[in-house]
Amino acid sequence: GLVDKAGHRHYMAKEIHEQPEVIAHTLAHYLDPDARTVRLNEPRLAKALAEAMRLTISACGTAYYAGLVGKYWFEQLARLPVEIDVASELRYRQPVYPENGVALYISQSGETADTLAALRDAKAHGQVTIAIVNVPESTIAREADIALPTFAGPEIGVASTKAFTCQLSALAPLAIAAARARGHMDLATENKLCSALLGAPRHIVEFLKQESRIEHLGGEVAKARDVLYLGRGVNYPLALEGALKLKEISYIHAEGYAAGEMKHGPIALIDEKVPVIVIAPHDALYEKTVSNMQEVMARGGKVILISDKAGIAAAGAQVWQTVEVPEADPFISPLLYAVPVQTLAYYAAVAKGTDVDQPRNLAKSVTVE
Ligand code: G6P
């Protein structure tokens, strides 16, 4: 075919490995590498973001989780209130759109029926619509007021990987642009955040060198019937995405939870048979997440901690397994931590012998309701 597996066993493996390149490509479109600034200078966009009373974000599946990461970035950096929901809910909710509202839709294919319907609803209610889309000639890209491309290239594996990290690579510059437009970002901060983003591909290359270790851990995860993923703050959506990836391709039941919410339910499930995957870079929320992790271990739960060197060192010896991600600015952790959860799900599926690229009952693009 037009796209081959380039020596990989599955398209999904190929697409995981393409991430450093396609992230760099996407970032190159939105960032000036010398000035270390965002080059989203379309006046219409800056004006809409500056005047927005609220940003509505919607999408489906993995693209929705990219949007959820975006919510943290838009609120923290741009002080822009965000409403976010899956498109299949938002479109029927009769959402209250503000005057001067901006609405953002995220889609790999640009053809997802619910996402398109949600976009049309927002347009009909006077919102300025922005779409982050991987297929530039798609319906969603054409119908949005402003289309922002991602450069993931064709994604063949049904489980989205490189499209997700490219969506994050467009969302982060957009959040910085919003912060600037709204007067919440000085040049030094913009330079620091852009530098951090530009370093992401290099960190992912570094991470992928330990693939044999992830392969081994994937084999361990494959023995489980249920797996719980925990994360906090901007990494909470990564827990959701990790659980989604695992259930999509390995058919293991998995749930993603906000770490602090675990004691309101999932803690009842914890025993030595349920691996708990904790996503916790050594950032401002690390201590909080680690105390949730200790609650899991106190109940016999087997923890796989995904963190950086400092985070792993501080976690103690009780942790069952660790996965080390290169140290980086916490701003880019969603980009980096996406890769271990993808590879872990991939190798769990390989160990189970499932059809990784064409999992049962799933479609690459859901163009009907
Ligand atoms: C399907 C795919 C997912 C994808 C979702 C949204 O469920 O299997 O991988 O995240 O649709 O698709 P979109 O093309 O709108 O990003």
UniProtKB/TrEMBL annotation:
It is found in: Cytoplasm. The active site is at K364 (for fru-6p isomerization activity). It is an enzyme of class 2 (transferase). Keywords: Aminotransferase, Cytoplasm, Glutamine amidotransferase, Repeat, Transferase. Residues 45-184, 217-359 form the SIS domain. It catalyses: D-fructose 6-phosphate + L-glutamine = D-glucosamine 6-phosphate + L-glutamate. Its EC number is 2.6.1.16. Its main location: cytoplasm. Catalyzes the first step in hexosamine metabolism, converting fructose-6P into glucosamine-6P using glutamine as a nitrogen source. Homodimer. This is Glutamine--fructose-6-phosphate aminotransferase [isomerizing]. It comes from Rhizomicrobium electricum. The gene is glmS. The chain holds residues 241 to 609 of 609 of the full protein.
